[in-house]
Amino acid sequence: MQPDWDERYRQGDTPWDKGRASPALIAWLEDNQGRMTGCVLVPGCGTGHDVRAIASAEPTSFPVGIDISKTAIEQCRHNKVQENERYQEENLFSLPKTFLTTCDWLWEHTCFCAIDPKERPAYVSAVAASLKPEGFLLGIFYLNPQRNDTRAASGPPHGTTIQELESLFLTDGVFSFMETIMPRDCYPEREGREQLLLLRRTKKLV
Q: Could you read off the pLDDT of 58-72 as tens digits, one per residue?
């Protein structure tokens, strides 16, 4: 059974929220200045740390954070600091038409690991549908989120493997792998537990 995410935000029970943007994202933006431009979709944006980091690092980007939690989106809007950051209460699996094939980039951080693993093929279809042909998916994926945790192995968060990611994203030629990167920065105690991937949407439509 999936958690009631809005209830978690209302109660402040959000251990995944570290109070700052993903260190892997910050490092990538520093190393790739001027690359993440245009519309950037951030699904499962939570309280918006990553959205604000992208908006600040890339003034020509237009990052939009979406989350199914109304409370999280309200917090995002309250804490907005950059003119080019935007937030909407949306479900990645039922995006309005205005999001389809309109995004130049998608940043994945905590959405993939939070959903039921059975929904992962639908996740791939949803992110592919949001991207323009030849758009980019940049994501930090948890290979082993349970290490040193007392949290149940059933998750969330749910771990993955490089083999599973290849199987999911390369199916039917919808994505191609551009880079597989070991993050040079991460949250404490996540060393070796994450993988940063850059994928490119092919011209083929879903």
A: 999 999 999 999 999
